[in-house]
Amino acid sequence: MSSPILEVTCLTKAYADRPILRGVSFKLAAGERAALLGPSGSGKTTLLNCIGGVDRADTGVVSIADEKLHALDADGLARVRRTHIGTVFQFFHLLPTLTAAENVELPLQLLGITAAEREKRVRALLERVGVSHRASALPSELSGGEMQRVAIARAIIHRPALLLADEPTGNLDSHTGEQVLDLLAEVVQESQAALLMVTHSDEAAKRCQRILRMKDGELTEA
Ligand SMILES: Nc1ncnc2c1ncn2[C@@H]1O[C@H](COP(=O)(O)OP(=O)(O)OP(=O)(O)O)[C@@H](O)[C@H]1O
Fold it and tell me: Of 29, 97, 121, 123, which has the maximum CB count within 10 A?
């Protein structure tokens, strides 16, 4: 069997001596979609941040596409994040002074992809996520659903192995949220990325094959 895209082993993290993650272990394979559920304050975002290289775990191992995060310096971590990880946030986090197309293009610029190739891929992906007619719009001119479609395109444009989503529908009405969830599931399926999605939404969890639950710093699988 091929090695997992994401392997988390015995991860621990404390804030001011208060344990938040108490030995979290799980694996995700290519094409797998996992919902991460749990009460507020149970450590879901902390876990996502340690996996995404935004925060460092105290002990334990996060391995993404066979790269062990704790062994990397800041440059190495930035490289792994640019290459292997895409992230979708609740509040979209689009850069306000860039157009939709420029936001989506950004990860490819960071990877040094040529302008011609960037333009081709951005155009095709905006088409795929249903916002090609809004390519020249600034984020402030987009609806919430359009912003999240653009953000999803930005998260997958560089074909990452791992997609992290933190409450991707938390700021959308339920109908728009369901459309965005369908899109997210489809693009993950098409790209065979692994998806780890923090959510409080049953609708979001339904679209995942695996349900992981955080409780008191420990992870269990339903
Ligand atoms: N930088 C930090 N410094 C200190 N404590 C923190 C920090 N970040 C998070 N915490 C605490 O760690 C605990 C877990 O937070 P986390 O955001 O991971 O929970 P969560 O499960 O994602 O919650 P929610 O569902 O409300 O977003 C909380 O009690 C939070 O206050």
Answer: 121
